[in-house]
Structures are given as C-alpha cells and as structure tokens.
Amino acid sequence: MPRYYFDFRDGDDLSFDEEGMELSSIASVQEEAAKTLAEMAGDSVRSPKYDGSKNRRMAVEVRNEGGPVLQVTFTFEVARYLS
After folding, report:
1. In angstroms, rounded to a whole number, what is the distance separating the alpha carbons of residues 40 and 21?
2. Three-class SS string for 14-58?
3. 65: helix, coil or strand?
C-alpha cells in the first residue's frame, strides 16, 4: 500500500509529516486530508490566540515518494460584532 505524507500549512508556516500514512486509494487520501483540515480549522477558531482580525489560510499538502499528490485548502475569517 502506498505511503502518503500530510504536511500542514498555516499561513506561511509549514510543518512536515515525517511518518506518513498508508492508504489504499486517492479517495481515501482526499478524505483524510479534508478531515484533518477541518480539525485544524476548528482548533484554530477555538484558540485564544486567534482574534479573527485577518483572513486565515490553512492547507494540507499531501505527497508521496514521487512528489505532490493533492492539496486541500481553506480560508476563513471571523467577524466579531461584539467583544
């Protein structure tokens, strides 16, 4: 089974996946990347460090031994009307 690496991008910061994950199909890879990105976005919104004042771009960039396979991106902004 092929091994895929899920690198995480938060703005300009990129964290590399050193372990990877074995998955049987590109559909499984896409599902895992989307699920991981949703969790990252949820954690970010709940973080006290995020004040919602700017657009936030996050991505999961997936690669295998041959190079890039796919990228899932998400951009969001929180507009606060009350403090």
Report:
1. 18
2. EECCCCCEECCCHHHHHHHHHHHHHHHHHHHHHCCCCCCCCCEEE
3. coil
pLDDT-above-70 percentage for the chain: 90
Q: Could you give the dihedral angle defined by the CA atoms of residues 66, 67, 71 and 75, in that order, rounded to the nearest 10 degrees?
A: 160
Q: Name the token pair of 49.
A: 């460090």
What number is the average pLDDT over the span 32-51?
A: 83
Q: Give, in degrees to the nearest 5, the angle at Cα 32 between 31 and 38.
A: 90
Strand partners, 13: 10
Query: If you search the block for the tokens 């938060």, which residue do you land on?
Result: 10
Indicate the DSSP class of residue 66.
T
Kindly state the tokens that stand for 71. 């990228």
Token pair recorded at residue 50: 């995020």
Average pLDDT in the chain: 89
